[in-house]
Every structure is written in structure tokens, then in C-alpha cells.
Design brief:
Helix 9 runs antiparallel to helix 10 (258-271). The chain contains 12 helices and 16 strands. Helices cover 31% and strands 21% of the residues. Strands 1, 2, 3, 4, 5, 6, 7, 8, 11 and 12 form a 10-stranded mixed beta sheet that branches. Strands 14-13-15-16 form a 4-stranded parallel beta sheet, with helices on both faces. By secondary structure, the chain is an alpha/beta fold.
Length: 386
């Protein structure tokens, strides 16, 4: 009797002992029994390797590969090579899943769907949760429908100036042979720390004969701060980005118009480097709620992430109003900008309005409730749906 599993869950692990147990507990608790769990310890120097070994001892479905540090691209590939499952998926070591996440995908795997996409939940710590929606209609896609409805905007949706399909591999279950074929194209690429997911996803989508986009949000992605991503701070950012560009233009050749989409996305990603110098990209994406806040009034700006920094720039350029305080729950990350703790906002602070500069309505609702508990009247709290 074959012991081949339907699904392999591959977790690359590098110095994640603070979050690893929550991640592994969520995988081991899956109500889907027909899976194997491959942990790839990518040369961790903390206690992550020992944690992986402990889980392997207590759960026979868990296997551990220890390797010298090679980066996520090679860690995932080595995990993939070590299993023989029909399908594979990936989990980042600081994320977690709903207990029935993989069980909910069983019917699509039983029907032989090539690529199964499910939703993510952005876990933003004290700022609450965000539930991103797909840019595409939920449901099943045949090969013809993929060509008609997905390919024209899959990499970059030019008319709407946004990415198309989510770039992550973690919110997808994909046939292992498709993944292996795409990883085989990366043989000459060394250690990467940027763009690994789309470098694998976009080429294999050329060969997909079927896809299903689920509405359910099953994967919890940890994003507790809006701090600048590490890859944008690295001196070799443009080297990595060019490697990404060369790989995709060389290997995504069967999708009409793909080169244009890749180049538009390349330009967008290159622009993101401006954030490293404190210059916000895509200034027109958010607009300060001028219609709700009279000119010349005193304002508390709540939020120093992308929305908050764009708002602040618009206010300063127009000299529209007086920002008496700029606050954020993660003020330490933005101290260089003069951002203060949200604790200073109370009835003793003189202001006309508090403008919540956050794009998530769920987070806005949590902030509003917090302010009302401090005695701030609701008519002094302003939020514009961005």
C-alpha cells in the first residue's frame, strides 16, 4: 500500500524561535490527516533547529532537514525535493493557519485542480486585522478561463495600476510537479532575499490547466508593523530586483503581453526604494479628507504608516492645517519623523479633529472605540475610506 501523501507542507525556518511554535502547532492541529510536514532548518543560529527536532519526535508526520544557510528559495526547493506528495504548499515560520484550512481544500485536490488559491488575513498586532480580497471572481477556472480572465492582468493590472494574482506561495496549494518544474528554472540563481515567490509562481502559471480561487481567508500572515522591509534597506536591492526581472522575462514567455506586465511591476518595485530615503511612492494613492476637515484647524494625525506619511506630506505642501501631534502605536519605529505615542491623545490635548490615517476599517473601528473610552467625542474623529 502506497504511503504517498496528498499534501506536503513545507516550512523554511531561519531564526524564528519566537514564533515557530505557534506556526507548527497550527500545522500539526490541521483536521486534514493526509499530509506530511517538512521543516527545513536553514542554518538557524538560535533555538529554531531544536524546536523543529522536538516536533518531529512527537509527531510522526513531521520530518526535519538541517542545512547550511542557503536562503528561502533553496530551503523550499530542498523541502520539495524530499517529498513525493501530489500537492505541496508553503508556510512561513512566523505565520499560522486556521485548523481546517487544508481540509477545506480537499475537494479541490480530489478534483485534480492544479492551483488552489485561498485568502489571507493580515495580522497587524494591536492594529487589528485586515482581510484582503481577491482581484478576481471567486470560483473555478478552466484553462480557457485562465487565459481569458487571469493572464491579461496576472502579473500587473495595467488599467488599475496594481498587482494581479497574489504573489505569495503561502496562500496557494499547487501540484508538486508544477512547482518542481518552475524551481528547475532557478538552477543558476544563488542565494536570494527578495522576490522568491513570484519567481516560482508566474512561470508555473503558464502550465496550469485549472485553478480555483476560494473566498475563505485561511492563512494568517503576521504583519505587526509598517517598518521598512529589510530587502529595501539592503545595498544589493537593485541587484536582486534585476535578477528577478531577468528570470521572469526569460521564463514567462507563453503568456501574451507578459513582458509589459513584468516591466510595469519592475518599475513599481524599483520606485519602492524611495521609501528607504523617506520619500513615499505613489503619492496619489491616498488623499487627506479635506472635505471633512476645515482648513486652518488643529489636527491630531493618528498613524505613521504609508497613509499617515502621505497625509502628512499633503498637509505640509498645502499648509492646510496645524498638526499638533502625529502619533502611532508603534511610535519607536517612526521616532526619527517626530512621531509620538498614542498615549498622549486625551482630553487635555488641544485639537479640533483626530484624523485616523489607516486604511483598514477594522483597525479604524478599534482606534475609534479606544478614543471614545478616553472620552473623545465621536464628532471629533475623522476617517476616510481609502
Amino acid at each position: 500500500m502506497s504511503s504517498r501523501k496528498s499534501l506536503s507542507v513545507i516550512v523554511p525556518v531561519y531564526n524564528m524561535e519566537a514564533h515557530l511554535r505557534k506556526c507548527l502547532d497550527s500545522i500539526c492541529a490541521q483536521t486534514c490527516a493526509d499530509l506530511e510536514i517538512v521543516l527545513v532548518d536553514d542554518g538557524s543560529t538560535d533555538g529554531s533547529g531544536a524546536i523543529c527536532d522536538a516536533y518531529a519526535k512527537r509527531d510522526r508526520r513531521v520530518r526535519v532537514l538541517h542545512q547550511k544557510n542557503c536562503g528561502v528559495l533553496r530551503a523550499r526547493h530542498n523541502g520539495l525535493l524530499s517529498c513525493e506528495s501530489v500537492y505541496a504548499t508553503f508556510v512561513d515560520a512566523d505565520d499560522w493557519l486556521d485548523a481546517d484550512a487544508y481540509e477545506q481544500t480537499e475537494r479541490f485536490r480530489e478534483n485534480g485542480i492544479d492551483v488552489i488559491v485561498f485568502g489571507k488575513i493580515l495580522e497587524r498586532g494591536r492594529r487589528g486585522r485586515t482581510f484582503p480580497k481577491s482581484n478576481y471572481v471567486y470560483g473555478a477556472y478552466s484553462r480557457a478561463q485562465i487565459e481569458q480572465d487571469i493572464y491579461p492582468t496576472m502579473i500587473w493590472d495595467v488599467p488599475n495600476s496594481r498587482t494581479g494574482i497574489t504573489q505569495s506561495l503561502c496562500d496557494k496549494i499547487i501540484k508538486r510537479d508544477l512547482l518542481l518544474a518552475s524551481y528547475a528554472l532557478t538552477g543558476e540563481i544563488g542565494k536570494l532575499h527578495y522576490g522568491e515567490d513570484p519567481m516560482i509562481l508566474y512561470p508555473l502559471m503558464q502550465w496550469a490547466q485549472s485553478m480555483y480561487i476560494m473566498e475563505e481567508n485561511l492563512y494568517h500572515y503576521r504583519k505587526e508593523t509598517d517598518e521598512l522591509p529589510a530587502y529595501l534597506r539592503n545595498d544589493d536591492f537593485f541587484d536582486m530586483l534585476y535578477t528577478w526581472y531577468r528570470h521572469l522575462t526569460a521564463h514567462v514567455t507563453k503568456i501574451p503581453g507578459a513582458k509589459k506586465q513584468i516591466e510595469y511591476l519592475y518599475i513599481y518595485l524599483a520606485e519602492a526604494r524611495k521609501d528607504y530615503y523617506g520619500d513615499i511612492t505613489v503619492q496619489g494613492e491616498y488623499m487627506f479628507p479635506f472635505e471633512l476637515v476645515p482648513a486652518g484647524c488643529k489636527v491630531v494625525l493618528w498613524g505613521a504608516g504609508k497613509v499617515g506619511r502621505i497625509y502628512r506630506g499633503q498637509i505640509e505642501r498645502l499648509r492646510y492645517c496645524d498638526v499638533v501631534a502625529w502619533v502611532d502605536s508603534n511610535d519607536c519605529a517612526y521616532s526619527a519623523l517626530g512621531v509620538q505615542s498614542t498615549k498622549i491623545v486625551d482630553l487635555h490635548l488641544e485639537f479640533d479633529y483626530i484624523v485616523i490615517a489607516i486604511y483598514s476599517q477594522a483597525v479604524k473601528d478599534a482606534v475609534t472605540e479606544q478614543l471614545k473610552q478616553r472620552g473623545i467625542p465621536g464628532d471629533k474623529i475623522v476617517w476616510h475610506d481609502v
